[in-house]
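Module 6 notes. Inverse folding takes a fixed backbone as the condition and produces residue identities as the prediction. Think of it as a translation problem where the source language is geometry and the target language is the twenty amino acids. Below is one complete input and output pair. Work through it position by position during the lab.
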């Protein structure tokens, strides 16, 4: 049997007005339905704390050596499932669940201003739309300069761009946990396919040079 690929998917704990965080509920639903027999799925609830993220993410990448890490967060403004293309390094002033914010207001000292995922989110969005998941999926380039953006940037930095971030609306506005779980499943399978296609293309190009 082919070696299973490890994929990590995270959601966030409750914060602010989100007494139940739709991101973690959706990730738990995804864990229930899985990503197929060839994917080893590991899910984790991330604290809404800057310092915890700084410790947790690098150790998670090092321990699991994942093919892809997908972070899921909730946005009270979102009316659709939103694929974030990039993470930002600066502008972190909002206090976390421990009433802390980084003194430097940035994620990685001297890190690039913005890091983009190796995934083409517009293409993922297009393919998922063609699959007819029944939920609206859009693309954004601003993950909000809070723990979502902070977590995404950290993972993009540690994982050399092999990360993704998905914002989901609060539960019932308008989607159920089952609908969100199925949508995450379709999106992540498409992301993995894109990574495989790029890997195969790189292998072909490499052979072409000999």
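Target side of the pair, the amino acids:
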């Amino acid at each position: 049997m082919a070696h299973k690929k490890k994929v990590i998917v995270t959601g966030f704990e409750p914060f602010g007005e989100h007494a139940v965080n739709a991101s973690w509920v959706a990730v738990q639903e995804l864990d229930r339905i899985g990503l197929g027999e060839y994917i080893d799925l590991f899910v984790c609830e991330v604290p809404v704390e800057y310092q915890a993220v700084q410790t947790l993410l690098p150790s998670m990448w090092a321990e699991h050596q994942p093919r892809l890490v997908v972070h899921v967060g909730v946005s009270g403004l979102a009316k659709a499932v939103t694929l974030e293309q990039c993470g930002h390094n600066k502008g972190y002033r909002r206090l976390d669940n421990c009433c802390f914010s980084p003194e430097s207001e940035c994620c990685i000292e001297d890190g690039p201003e913005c890091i983009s995922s190796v995934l083409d989110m517009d293409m993922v969005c297009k393919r998922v739309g063609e699959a007819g998941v029944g939920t609206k999926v859009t693309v954004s380039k601003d993950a909000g300069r809070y723990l979502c953006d902070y977590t995404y940037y950290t993972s993009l930095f540690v994982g050399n761009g092999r990360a993704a971030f998905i914002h989901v609306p609060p539960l019932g506005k308008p989607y159920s946990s089952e609908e969100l779980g199925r949508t995450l499943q379709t999106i992540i399978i498409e992301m993995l396919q894109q990574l495989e296609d790029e890997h195969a293309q790189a292998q072909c190009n490499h052979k072409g040079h000999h």
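Reference fact for the lab report: The chain has a mean pLDDT of 93.
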